[in-house]
Write a structure and sequence with these properties.
CATH superfamily: Thiolase/Chalcone synthase
Largest sheet: 10 strands, mixed
Bound molecules: 3-hydroxy-3-methylglutaryl-coenzyme A
CATH architecture: 3-Layer(aba) Sandwich
Shape: globular
CATH class: Alpha Beta
Number of strands: 18
Number of domains: 1
Structural class: alpha+beta
Helix content: 25-40%
Strand content: 15-25%
Order of helices and strands: EEHHEHEHEHEEEEEEHEHHHHEEHEHEEE
Number of helices: 12
Radius of gyration: 20 Å
CATH topology: Peroxisomal Thiolase, Chain A, domain 1
Oligomer: single chain
């Protein structure tokens, strides 16, 4: 029996801020963003869009293709939690009318948590092939205005149906891990924006990659040449280039620019215009690869490097299944990305930084154009609505 990704779909918000607009406002050379960090746009979530509504948007096309009564668990990975006790998955469970005979839990370890949820789901399916699990990775990346991270914000949610004999990708057994207690990026409980030591975070990311790779080779016996395509956690797309160069050096390889691009470029197309989506970023990169690679990827082995600040990292692999092309949801991905409304810098500041959530009752202005929105917070209870 095999276990893996049967269906995958991602969602993002209805608004975007171009980094050209951003550069003009800050009086900076736009090439710092387009070339230096490899980002063109960031998806911006208005106050009535949160990780629950993004997740609902990501999951709903999957539920349209299956009997939702068969879902046995919702594993929700995020670092943009909406409550300290109740999991985002519990709100989602209500909003989507999922069956009561179902387990729901939230996972947290910065951007790594999506991989933790995925691996937990894979193990559950191996121990009970009747499990049909929704793994969701959803985040809204927020940094303080004027900080080094401001240009690397964004948002997104990825939903994956994890089951036996999957139609898109088998997740292989055997991973490489690395954990070290570091202060590269964190968000204390009283803040809704992350704190970051930007340059140090890129160093800890690359350092973790080297250790996770060593552990992966030791555990699985697989080598660089056994892997066809690579997806990395993408805080900004230039990080993929830095990471792949680091891995190639570590593996003592020399490859052509053409091969380098074939191995990594299709996996950056969506992230380049969505921005960082923390837990979701690695899996948006996978959607980007599936939708945009011109080659037939059947039987290709993908290497995934998952990194979460703080820090925990994992390198793991999966193999694409024959006929995967019939199950990808490219049209929906492109429609969402292309239909976003462009914001001016002042409109972005209004949507992103002005709304305070401090215990008072709030009825949110209607900015979220999707089917699911956060309508209000009443007596400290979040109320969602379906349009
Ligand atoms: P910065 O200091 O504003 O930028 O912030 P810089 O001066 O280092 O420039 C960036 C690059 O652009 C440099 O290239 C410049 O040379 C180049 P590099 O040295 O890297 O090759 N550049 C230009 N290129 C062309 N034309 C120009 C130009 N000017 C400069 N005119 C930094 C960069 C990444 C620090 C910042 O964006 C930041 O703090 N980001 C947030 C943290 C982050 O994303 N870290 C990544 C690793 S940690 C991670 O991935 C985990 C995370 O997702 C969180 C989680 O786990 O939950 C963040």
């Amino acid at each position: 029996m095999t276990a893996g990704i049967d269906l995958i779909h991602f969602a993002t918000s209805d608004y975007e801020l171009g980094l050209d607009t951003f550069a003009k406002e800050k009086n900076l050379d736009v090439n710092k963003f387009f070339d230096g960090i490899g980002q063109e746009k960031m998806s911006i979530a208005p106050p009535d869009e949160d990780i629950v509504t993004l997740a609902a948007k990501a999951v709903s096309p999957i539920l349209n293709k299956i009997d939702k009564q068969t879902i046995t668990a919702v594993l929700f990975a995020t670092e943009s939690s909406v409550d300290q006790s109740k999991s985002a998955g519990a709100f989602l469970h209500g909003l989507l009318g999922l069956p009561n005979k179902c387990r729901v839990v939230e996972f947290k370890q910065a951007c790594y948590a999506g991989t933790a949820a995925l691996q937990m789901a894979i193990s559950l399916v191996h121990s009970n092939p009747k499990e049909n699990i929704l793994v969701i990775a959803a985040d809204i990346a927020r940094y303080e205005q004027g900080s080094s991270g401001e240009a690397t914000q964004g948002c997104g949610a990825v939903a994956m149906l994890i089951k036996q004999n999957p139609r898109i990708m088998i997740i292989e057994q055997g991973s490489g891990y690395y954990t070290e207690d570091v202060a590269d990026f964190w968000r204390p409980n009283y803040l809704n924006t992350a704190l970051v030591d930007g340059k140090y975070s890129t160093k800890t990311y690359l350092n973790s990659l080297k250790y996770a790779w060593d552990n992966f080779v030791e555990e699985t016996g697989k080598q660089f040449d056994d892997i066809n395509n690579f997806c990395y956690h993408i805080p900004f797309s230039r990080m993929t280039e830095k990471a792949h160069k680091t891995l190639i050096k570590k593996a003592n390889k020399i490859i052509s620019v053409k091969t380098f691009n074939q191995q990594t470029l299709p996996g950056q197309i969506y992230n380049r215009v969505v921005g960082n989506s923390y837990c979701a970023a690695l899996f948006i990169s996978f959607c980007s690869f599936l939708d945009n690679d011109k080659h037939n990827l059947e039987k290709n082995r993908f290497g995934f490097f998952s990194y979460g600040s703080g820090c925990v990292a994992e390198f793991f692999t999966g193999v694409i299944q024959t006929g995967y092309q019939d199950f990808i949801m490219k049209d929906s991905h492109l429609q969402q990305i292309n239909n976003r409304q462009a914001l001016s810098y002042d409109e972005y500041v209004d949507l992103y930084y002005k709304q305070k959530i401090d215990g008072a009752n709030i009825v949110f202005a209607k900015n979220n154009k999707g089917k699911y929105r956060l309508e209000k917070i009443e007596n400290n209870i979040r109320k969602y609505e379906i349009n």
